[in-house]
Amino acid sequence: MNRILTTLALLALGAWLPAQAGGDAAAAAKAAYDALVAEWTAEQAAARAAMKQVTESAEYKAARDAKDNDKARALLAQAKRADAKAIGQRALALADQHGAHGGRFAAYAATTLVADKEIAAAAAERLQRSYLTDPAMQTVLESPMGLFSALGTEPAKALLGKVEAANGDGIATAWAKYWRAILLQRGKPTDEQKAEAEGLLAAAEKLAAGTVLADRIAAPRFQKERLQVGMAIPDIRGEDMDGVPFSLSDYRGKVVVLDFWGFW
Amino acid sequence: MIPHERSLVERLKDKPFALLGVNSDADKVYYESEKAQNGVSWRSFWNGPKGTQGPISGKWNVRGWPTIYVVDHKGVIRFMNVRGEAMDKAVDELLAEMVADSAGK
Protein backbone atom coordinates (compact mmCIF):
# COMPACT_ATOMS: atom_id res chain seq x y z
CA MET A 1 0.00 0.00 0.00
CA ASN A 2 2.74 2.35 0.98
CA ARG A 3 4.63 1.47 -2.12
CA ILE A 4 1.60 2.23 -4.27
CA LEU A 5 1.14 5.60 -2.59
CA THR A 6 4.80 6.38 -3.02
CA THR A 7 4.59 5.41 -6.69
CA LEU A 8 1.51 7.58 -7.15
CA ALA A 9 3.19 10.47 -5.37
CA LEU A 10 6.28 10.09 -7.56
CA LEU A 11 4.13 9.95 -10.68
CA ALA A 12 2.30 13.09 -9.61
CA LEU A 13 5.59 14.77 -8.84
CA GLY A 14 6.92 13.70 -12.22
CA ALA A 15 3.94 15.25 -13.96
CA TRP A 16 4.17 18.38 -11.87
CA LEU A 17 7.89 19.08 -12.10
CA PRO A 18 8.23 19.66 -15.86
CA ALA A 19 5.06 21.76 -15.88
CA GLN A 20 6.46 23.85 -13.07
CA ALA A 21 9.80 24.14 -14.82
CA GLY A 22 8.01 25.22 -18.01
CA GLY A 23 6.06 27.88 -16.11
CA ASP A 24 9.25 29.12 -14.49
CA ALA A 25 11.03 29.30 -17.83
CA ALA A 26 8.16 31.29 -19.35
CA ALA A 27 8.10 33.65 -16.35
CA ALA A 28 11.87 34.06 -16.48
CA ALA A 29 11.70 34.91 -20.20
CA LYS A 30 8.92 37.41 -19.56
CA ALA A 31 10.91 39.09 -16.74
CA ALA A 32 14.06 39.29 -18.86
CA TYR A 33 12.01 40.73 -21.70
CA ASP A 34 10.39 43.41 -19.55
CA ALA A 35 13.82 44.43 -18.25
CA LEU A 36 15.21 44.68 -21.78
CA VAL A 37 12.27 46.79 -22.97
CA ALA A 38 12.57 49.10 -19.94
CA GLU A 39 16.26 49.53 -20.60
CA TRP A 40 15.78 50.37 -24.27
CA THR A 41 12.93 52.77 -23.49
CA ALA A 42 15.14 54.60 -20.97
CA GLU A 43 18.04 54.71 -23.41
CA GLN A 44 15.83 56.24 -26.09
CA ALA A 45 14.42 58.81 -23.68
CA ALA A 46 17.97 59.78 -22.72
CA ALA A 47 18.92 60.08 -26.39
CA ARG A 48 15.88 62.24 -27.04
CA ALA A 49 16.80 64.51 -24.13
CA ALA A 50 20.40 64.76 -25.36
CA MET A 51 19.18 65.70 -28.84
CA LYS A 52 16.86 68.30 -27.41
CA GLN A 53 19.68 69.78 -25.38
CA VAL A 54 21.64 70.29 -28.59
CA THR A 55 18.77 71.72 -30.63
CA GLU A 56 17.97 74.17 -27.85
CA SER A 57 21.56 75.29 -27.33
CA ALA A 58 22.62 78.81 -28.35
CA GLU A 59 25.46 77.35 -30.40
CA TYR A 60 23.11 75.18 -32.46
CA LYS A 61 20.62 77.99 -32.97
CA ALA A 62 23.41 80.29 -34.10
CA ALA A 63 24.60 77.67 -36.60
CA ARG A 64 21.05 77.28 -37.93
CA ASP A 65 20.56 81.02 -38.20
CA ALA A 66 23.84 81.32 -40.09
CA LYS A 67 22.66 78.41 -42.32
CA ASP A 68 25.88 76.61 -41.39
CA ASN A 69 24.50 73.11 -41.98
CA ASP A 70 27.84 71.37 -41.50
CA LYS A 71 28.24 72.92 -38.08
CA ALA A 72 24.64 72.11 -37.14
CA ARG A 73 25.09 68.50 -38.26
CA ALA A 74 28.36 68.22 -36.35
CA LEU A 75 26.66 69.46 -33.20
CA LEU A 76 23.81 66.99 -33.62
CA ALA A 77 26.31 64.19 -34.17
CA GLN A 78 27.78 64.90 -30.73
CA ALA A 79 24.53 64.01 -28.98
CA LYS A 80 24.64 60.51 -27.56
CA ARG A 81 22.40 58.19 -29.56
CA ALA A 82 20.58 55.09 -28.49
CA ASP A 83 22.64 52.08 -29.57
CA ALA A 84 20.19 49.76 -31.37
CA LYS A 85 22.96 47.37 -32.34
CA ALA A 86 24.19 46.70 -28.81
CA ILE A 87 20.72 46.11 -27.43
CA GLY A 88 19.76 44.12 -30.54
CA GLN A 89 22.67 41.75 -30.00
CA ARG A 90 21.53 41.21 -26.45
CA ALA A 91 17.96 40.61 -27.58
CA LEU A 92 19.17 37.92 -29.98
CA ALA A 93 21.38 36.30 -27.34
CA LEU A 94 18.36 36.24 -25.03
CA ALA A 95 16.23 34.65 -27.77
CA ASP A 96 18.80 31.84 -28.07
CA GLN A 97 19.14 31.47 -24.33
CA HIS A 98 15.37 31.16 -23.79
CA GLY A 99 14.82 28.80 -26.73
CA ALA A 100 11.12 27.95 -27.02
CA HIS A 101 10.29 30.97 -24.86
CA GLY A 102 12.58 33.25 -26.85
CA GLY A 103 10.17 34.31 -29.60
CA ARG A 104 9.40 37.67 -28.02
CA PHE A 105 13.08 38.63 -28.05
CA ALA A 106 13.44 37.84 -31.74
CA ALA A 107 10.20 39.71 -32.44
CA TYR A 108 11.42 42.72 -30.46
CA ALA A 109 14.67 42.80 -32.41
CA ALA A 110 12.69 42.46 -35.66
CA THR A 111 10.31 45.33 -34.91
CA THR A 112 11.98 47.78 -32.56
CA LEU A 113 15.69 47.37 -33.19
CA VAL A 114 15.80 47.18 -36.97
CA ALA A 115 17.82 50.40 -37.30
CA ASP A 116 20.74 48.01 -37.64
CA LYS A 117 20.61 45.82 -40.78
CA GLU A 118 22.64 42.97 -39.29
CA ILE A 119 20.32 42.77 -36.31
CA ALA A 120 17.32 42.77 -38.62
CA ALA A 121 18.72 39.93 -40.72
CA ALA A 122 19.68 37.87 -37.66
CA ALA A 123 16.25 38.44 -36.12
CA ALA A 124 14.52 37.36 -39.33
CA GLU A 125 16.70 34.25 -39.45
CA ARG A 126 15.67 33.26 -35.93
CA LEU A 127 12.00 33.95 -36.60
CA GLN A 128 12.12 31.65 -39.65
CA ARG A 129 14.03 28.95 -37.87
CA SER A 130 12.11 28.76 -34.60
CA TYR A 131 9.16 31.09 -34.20
CA LEU A 132 6.96 30.97 -37.32
CA THR A 133 3.92 29.93 -35.26
CA ASP A 134 4.94 31.72 -32.04
CA PRO A 135 2.39 34.26 -30.75
CA ALA A 136 5.20 36.86 -30.85
CA MET A 137 5.21 36.55 -34.64
CA GLN A 138 1.97 38.51 -34.56
CA THR A 139 3.72 41.63 -33.27
CA VAL A 140 6.14 41.39 -36.19
CA LEU A 141 3.30 40.97 -38.68
CA GLU A 142 1.50 44.01 -37.32
CA SER A 143 4.36 46.39 -38.09
CA PRO A 144 6.99 44.81 -40.31
CA MET A 145 7.86 47.71 -42.61
CA GLY A 146 11.07 48.57 -40.76
CA LEU A 147 12.13 44.93 -40.94
CA PHE A 148 11.27 44.72 -44.63
CA SER A 149 13.26 47.78 -45.56
CA ALA A 150 16.24 46.45 -43.60
CA LEU A 151 15.96 42.98 -45.19
CA GLY A 152 15.09 43.94 -48.75
CA THR A 153 11.99 42.85 -50.66
CA GLU A 154 12.91 39.30 -51.69
CA PRO A 155 14.03 38.05 -48.25
CA ALA A 156 10.91 39.72 -46.83
CA LYS A 157 8.68 37.84 -49.27
CA ALA A 158 10.47 34.59 -48.43
CA LEU A 159 9.82 35.11 -44.73
CA LEU A 160 6.14 35.83 -45.42
CA GLY A 161 5.83 32.72 -47.56
CA LYS A 162 7.14 30.62 -44.66
CA VAL A 163 4.69 32.25 -42.25
CA GLU A 164 1.83 31.35 -44.61
CA ALA A 165 3.02 27.78 -44.99
CA ALA A 166 3.34 27.31 -41.22
CA ASN A 167 0.10 28.91 -40.07
CA GLY A 168 -2.66 27.29 -42.16
CA ASP A 169 -5.81 29.44 -42.21
CA GLY A 170 -4.81 31.39 -39.10
CA ILE A 171 -4.68 35.13 -38.70
CA ALA A 172 -0.88 35.09 -39.16
CA THR A 173 -1.45 33.73 -42.66
CA ALA A 174 -3.87 36.58 -43.37
CA TRP A 175 -1.26 39.14 -42.31
CA ALA A 176 1.46 37.46 -44.33
CA LYS A 177 -0.73 37.48 -47.46
CA TYR A 178 -1.58 41.12 -46.83
CA TRP A 179 2.07 42.17 -46.60
CA ARG A 180 3.06 40.08 -49.59
CA ALA A 181 0.40 41.97 -51.57
CA ILE A 182 1.72 45.32 -50.32
CA LEU A 183 5.25 44.36 -51.36
CA LEU A 184 3.98 43.25 -54.79
CA GLN A 185 2.20 46.57 -55.29
CA ARG A 186 5.26 48.66 -54.57
CA GLY A 187 7.27 50.30 -57.32
CA LYS A 188 5.98 49.54 -60.79
CA PRO A 189 4.10 46.25 -60.61
CA THR A 190 3.33 44.31 -63.79
CA ASP A 191 -0.31 43.45 -64.55
CA GLU A 192 0.42 39.94 -63.39
CA GLN A 193 1.78 41.21 -60.05
CA LYS A 194 -1.21 43.51 -59.63
CA ALA A 195 -3.58 40.60 -60.18
CA GLU A 196 -1.63 38.43 -57.74
CA ALA A 197 -1.76 41.20 -55.12
CA GLU A 198 -5.53 41.59 -55.58
CA GLY A 199 -5.97 37.86 -55.08
CA LEU A 200 -3.83 37.87 -51.93
CA LEU A 201 -5.76 40.82 -50.48
CA ALA A 202 -9.11 39.18 -51.13
CA ALA A 203 -7.94 35.97 -49.48
CA ALA A 204 -6.45 37.86 -46.52
CA GLU A 205 -9.61 39.93 -46.00
CA LYS A 206 -11.66 36.75 -45.86
CA LEU A 207 -9.32 35.04 -43.39
CA ALA A 208 -9.18 38.19 -41.24
CA ALA A 209 -12.93 38.93 -41.16
CA GLY A 210 -13.91 41.02 -38.13
CA THR A 211 -10.35 42.12 -37.28
CA VAL A 212 -8.41 45.37 -37.73
CA LEU A 213 -6.64 43.74 -40.64
CA ALA A 214 -9.92 43.31 -42.54
CA ASP A 215 -10.63 47.01 -41.86
CA ARG A 216 -7.24 47.93 -43.16
CA ILE A 217 -7.65 45.91 -46.35
CA ALA A 218 -11.06 47.48 -46.90
CA ALA A 219 -9.62 50.95 -46.20
CA PRO A 220 -9.03 52.17 -49.78
CA ARG A 221 -12.63 51.16 -50.60
CA PHE A 222 -13.87 52.82 -47.37
CA GLN A 223 -12.05 56.01 -48.26
CA LYS A 224 -13.43 56.07 -51.80
CA GLU A 225 -17.01 55.29 -50.79
CA ARG A 226 -17.34 57.06 -47.44
CA LEU A 227 -14.68 59.74 -47.04
CA GLN A 228 -15.20 62.17 -49.91
CA VAL A 229 -16.19 65.84 -49.74
CA GLY A 230 -19.99 66.08 -49.57
CA MET A 231 -20.42 62.76 -47.75
CA ALA A 232 -21.68 62.35 -44.19
CA ILE A 233 -18.60 61.68 -42.08
CA PRO A 234 -18.55 58.15 -40.62
CA ASP A 235 -18.67 58.01 -36.84
CA ILE A 236 -15.62 57.18 -34.76
CA ARG A 237 -16.15 55.56 -31.39
CA GLY A 238 -13.07 55.40 -29.25
CA GLU A 239 -11.34 56.58 -26.13
CA ASP A 240 -9.61 59.89 -25.53
CA MET A 241 -6.06 60.13 -24.20
CA ASP A 242 -7.37 59.79 -20.63
CA GLY A 243 -9.26 56.62 -21.51
CA VAL A 244 -12.69 58.28 -21.53
CA PRO A 245 -14.97 56.84 -24.25
CA PHE A 246 -16.52 59.29 -26.72
CA SER A 247 -17.80 59.52 -30.27
CA LEU A 248 -17.20 61.88 -33.14
CA SER A 249 -21.00 62.17 -33.45
CA ASP A 250 -21.10 63.73 -29.94
CA TYR A 251 -19.93 66.88 -31.72
CA ARG A 252 -22.74 67.04 -34.29
CA GLY A 253 -24.06 70.62 -34.38
CA LYS A 254 -20.54 72.05 -34.27
CA VAL A 255 -18.06 72.73 -37.00
CA VAL A 256 -15.35 70.13 -36.50
CA VAL A 257 -11.78 69.87 -37.66
CA LEU A 258 -10.76 66.21 -37.42
CA ASP A 259 -7.02 66.00 -37.38
CA PHE A 260 -4.99 62.78 -37.58
CA TRP A 261 -1.81 63.86 -35.83
CA GLY A 262 0.89 63.04 -33.31
CA PHE A 263 4.02 64.42 -31.69
CA TRP A 264 6.12 61.32 -32.33
CA MET B 1 1.22 72.59 -37.24
CA ILE B 2 0.60 72.60 -33.52
CA PRO B 3 1.08 76.34 -32.89
CA HIS B 4 -1.44 77.04 -35.64
CA GLU B 5 -3.99 74.60 -34.28
CA ARG B 6 -3.50 76.01 -30.80
CA SER B 7 -4.25 79.54 -32.02
CA LEU B 8 -7.29 78.35 -33.98
CA VAL B 9 -8.73 76.67 -30.90
CA GLU B 10 -7.96 79.74 -28.81
CA ARG B 11 -9.53 82.14 -31.33
CA LEU B 12 -12.75 80.09 -31.63
CA LYS B 13 -13.14 79.04 -28.02
CA ASP B 14 -16.57 80.71 -27.74
CA LYS B 15 -17.86 79.44 -31.10
CA PRO B 16 -19.66 76.21 -31.94
CA PHE B 17 -16.38 74.71 -33.04
CA ALA B 18 -14.26 71.77 -31.97
CA LEU B 19 -10.87 70.57 -33.04
CA LEU B 20 -10.69 66.83 -32.46
CA GLY B 21 -7.61 64.76 -32.97
CA VAL B 22 -6.85 61.17 -33.70
CA ASN B 23 -3.56 60.99 -31.89
CA SER B 24 -1.09 58.39 -33.09
CA ASP B 25 1.59 58.68 -30.43
CA ALA B 26 2.32 55.12 -29.37
CA ASP B 27 3.81 56.33 -26.10
CA LYS B 28 1.31 58.10 -23.85
CA VAL B 29 3.99 59.25 -21.41
CA TYR B 30 5.74 61.06 -24.24
CA TYR B 31 2.38 62.46 -25.37
CA GLU B 32 1.69 63.88 -21.91
CA SER B 33 5.05 65.62 -21.63
CA GLU B 34 4.78 67.12 -25.13
CA LYS B 35 1.16 68.09 -24.53
CA ALA B 36 2.14 70.17 -21.53
CA GLN B 37 5.03 71.83 -23.34
CA ASN B 38 3.03 72.60 -26.48
CA GLY B 39 -0.14 73.81 -24.80
CA VAL B 40 -2.35 71.21 -26.47
CA SER B 41 -5.87 71.68 -25.15
CA TRP B 42 -7.93 69.71 -27.63
CA ARG B 43 -9.36 66.27 -27.23
CA SER B 44 -8.07 63.33 -29.24
CA PHE B 45 -9.08 59.78 -29.85
CA TRP B 46 -6.15 57.55 -29.14
CA ASN B 47 -5.07 55.48 -32.13
CA GLY B 48 -3.66 52.89 -29.73
CA PRO B 49 -0.25 51.52 -28.78
CA LYS B 50 0.70 50.82 -32.40
CA GLY B 51 0.93 54.51 -33.17
CA THR B 52 0.45 55.31 -36.84
CA GLN B 53 -0.40 51.64 -37.45
CA GLY B 54 -3.40 51.88 -35.15
CA PRO B 55 -7.01 50.84 -35.86
CA ILE B 56 -8.64 54.22 -36.57
CA SER B 57 -6.09 55.47 -39.09
CA GLY B 58 -6.00 51.95 -40.55
CA LYS B 59 -9.72 51.90 -41.23
CA TRP B 60 -9.64 55.48 -42.59
CA ASN B 61 -6.78 54.71 -44.94
CA VAL B 62 -4.61 57.47 -43.50
CA ARG B 63 -1.29 57.41 -45.34
CA GLY B 64 0.00 60.90 -44.62
CA TRP B 65 0.25 62.73 -41.31
CA PRO B 66 -1.41 65.04 -40.60
CA THR B 67 -4.59 64.16 -42.47
CA ILE B 68 -7.38 66.66 -41.93
CA TYR B 69 -11.14 66.59 -42.47
CA VAL B 70 -13.25 69.70 -41.97
CA VAL B 71 -16.86 68.84 -41.17
CA ASP B 72 -19.86 71.18 -41.08
CA HIS B 73 -22.42 71.33 -38.28
CA LYS B 74 -24.58 68.76 -40.08
CA GLY B 75 -21.77 66.25 -40.09
CA VAL B 76 -20.91 66.55 -43.79
CA ILE B 77 -17.28 66.44 -44.94
CA ARG B 78 -16.66 69.82 -46.61
CA PHE B 79 -12.90 70.17 -46.90
CA MET B 80 -9.93 67.83 -46.75
CA ASN B 81 -6.30 68.45 -45.89
CA VAL B 82 -6.53 72.22 -45.57
CA ARG B 83 -3.65 73.67 -43.58
CA GLY B 84 -2.71 77.01 -42.09
CA GLU B 85 -4.75 79.90 -43.45
CA ALA B 86 -6.80 77.61 -45.66
CA MET B 87 -7.93 75.75 -42.54
CA ASP B 88 -8.92 79.03 -40.84
CA LYS B 89 -10.81 80.13 -43.92
CA ALA B 90 -12.66 76.81 -44.23
CA VAL B 91 -13.72 76.86 -40.59
CA ASP B 92 -14.81 80.51 -40.72
CA GLU B 93 -16.85 79.82 -43.85
CA LEU B 94 -18.65 76.90 -42.20
CA LEU B 95 -19.32 78.89 -39.02
CA ALA B 96 -20.81 81.70 -41.11
CA GLU B 97 -22.92 79.17 -43.00
CA MET B 98 -24.17 77.79 -39.71
CA VAL B 99 -25.24 81.25 -38.54
CA ALA B 100 -27.00 81.89 -41.89
CA ASP B 101 -28.66 78.47 -41.61
CA SER B 102 -30.13 79.13 -38.18
CA ALA B 103 -31.20 82.69 -39.20
CA GLY B 104 -33.05 81.23 -42.18
CA LYS B 105 -35.09 78.84 -40.04
Mean pLDDT over the residues of chain A = 91
* Estimated radius of gyration of chain A: 25 Å
Query: What is the count of helical runs of chain A?
Result: 12
Order of helices and strands of chain A: HHHHHHHHHHHHEEE
Q: Which spans of chain B of ≥5 residues are poorly predicted at pLDDT below 50?
A: none
User: Which structural class is indicated by helix and strand composition of chain A?
Assistant: mainly alpha
Question: Which value, in Å, is the CA radius of gyration of chain B?
Answer: 15 Å
Strand order of the largest sheet of chain B: 1-2
Alpha carbon gap, first and last residue of chain B? 37 Å
Q: Share of helix among residues of chain B?
A: 40-55%
Task: Give the tally of β-strands of chain B.
Answer: 4
Q: Report the portion of residues of chain B in β strands.
A: 15-25%
Shape of chain B: globular
Observed structural traits:
heterodimer, A: 264 residues, mainly alpha, two-stranded antiparallel ribbon, 5% strand, globular, B: 105 residues, alpha+beta, 2 domains, two-stranded antiparallel sheet, 45% helix
Summary, kept brief:
The complex is a heterodimer of chains A (264) and B (105). Helices cover 70% and strands 5% of the residues of chain A.
Chart the SSEs and their pairings.
The complex is a heterodimer of chains A (264) and B (105).
Chain A: H1 2-55, H2 58-65, H3 69-78, H4 84-98, H5 103-111, H6 117-130, H7 137-142, H8 145-151, H9 153-167, H10 171-185, H11 191-207, H12 212-226, E1 237-239, E2 245-247, E3 255-261
Antiparallel strand pairs in A: 1-2
Helix pairs in contact in A: 1-4, 2-3, 4-5, 4-6, 5-6, 8-9, 9-10, 10-11, 11-12
Chain B: H1 2-11, E1 17-23, H2 28-38, E2 43-46, H3 55-59, E3 67-71, E4 77-80, H4 84-104
